[in-house]
Amino acid sequence: AQSVAQPEDQVNVAEGNPLTVKCTYSVSGNPYLFWYVQYPNRGLQFLLKYITGDNLVKGSYGFEAEFNKSQTSFHLKKPSALVSDSALYFCAVRDTGFQKLVFGTGTRLLVSP
Amino acid sequence: NAGVTQTPKFQVLKTGQSMTLQCAQDMNHEYMSWYRQDPGMGLRLIHYSVGAGITDQGEVPNGYNVSRSTTEDFPLRLLSAAPSQTSVYFCASSFPGGLYAFFGQGTRLTVV
Predict the structure, then answer these.
(1) Distance between CA atoms of A82 and A37, rounded to whole angstroms?
(2) How far is the C-alpha of A88 from the C-alpha of A97, rounded, in Å?
(3) What pLDDT was estimated at residue A41?
């Protein structure tokens, strides 16, 4: 069965510094990997995805993610954090066939001014 | 605006009461699903549907029923609410083979 792990409950970073939110995955075949963001009292918004191709995926709001097959990781990154990036971030892997997403436990990102 | 609409946004129930969480999408998506979000546990799949008339269980289906009579609507029914069902519920939809899902704003349910 597919699974994802987000080892950090919270990540703290100062505004302007680079940020990384970690995600590792376990799948039996080729992974379809996603990052979603949840702002307070809002639904989940799609950030970016990896299906195939280039290991560095660019997404919304200046975020990018690096797919590393040997380390089974899909870390979310941004070169310069903004206070407005503070939110809950979820990594997810898509199950085979149906669009059934398996989510990690989430990482709260806190960007301080 | 196009998207996934959930109602109500907030609800308080007494133990043993029943209710239906509504979910509607206007994007003609065939796939729809319900998740619950609990602290430290991420989102867990309750039930899903691959098209009108077809539903199946997800990871945590106990205590919930669904039906899919139309493409647009996918209601989630709580048969007899329990405090363990206190959670935030999200509905999602996508096209078959679509590369990502669209989520509603969520319903925050408290069972006392």
Answers:
(1) 14
(2) 27
(3) 77
Provide DSSP, A50-102: E-SS-SEEE-GGG-EEEEETTTTEEEEEESS--GGG-EEEEEEEEPSSS--EE
- Which tens digit of pLDDT belongs to each residue from B1-58? 569 999 999 999 999 999 999 999 999 999 999 999 998 888 999 999 989 999 999 9
The whole-chain average pLDDT of chain A stands at 92
Strand partners, A77: A20, A64
CB contact under 8 A, B90 and A43: yes
B99 contacts chain A (CB < 8 A): yes
Q: Do B103 and A103 touch (CB under 8 A)?
A: no
**CA distance, residue A18 to nearest chain B CA (Å):** 25
In whole angstroms, give the CA distance from residue B50 to residue B43. Answer: 19
